[in-house]
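A student in our group prepared the protein record below, which I am reviewing. This is what I was given:
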Amino acid sequence: MGRVRLENDAKLTFEILMRTAFGYGYIPQFLYSDNEEESKIFIMRDSPQRLRKVPSIIISCTSSDFSIDELGPTAQRFENISDDPDSLPDEDRLVEFRGHAKLDIAFDIFAGSRQDRDMISDFAAICLRFLFRNKAAENGFEYTKILLGSDGFEFDDDVTYYTKTITVSCQSEFHETIPIELVDIINEIIVDVEVQY
């Protein structure tokens, strides 16, 4: 899976987990429901143009790190398209690139009061720390670092929102499939550059 799909899958994984936890009813005043009119908290991926409901938890990917971890040739392998990949024309032959990726998933909490913000952020942090790790790892997103940001507030149309961000640093693996013909074209390029000082 490429970068965008990896980010979307991570956000969806945590959205499902967070909705399930708040849907259990442990904190009745923040009971999540799929019926938006009945729900007492709004949990969604990515930032809407304007908050539709407070309190809210908005889940986003704030950064992706696809850095190369080691020196040397890029790891690659042929995708098994047929029993005899060498018999296929170049445009039908694919190579798969794999590597590690680090994603920072942010949970932006918006509430109408300090007390609501603190209750929501405490419960979300406990869920991330104790309840979600194994299920997230089963879906390919392992993490050990959970950072709680400072308390804040925002103003929008004369309304004060009390805010906090929880950031989870995940590690995963990406897969990107590319035609072997493109790989060959890149490998055949001769770069003849003289560096002058």
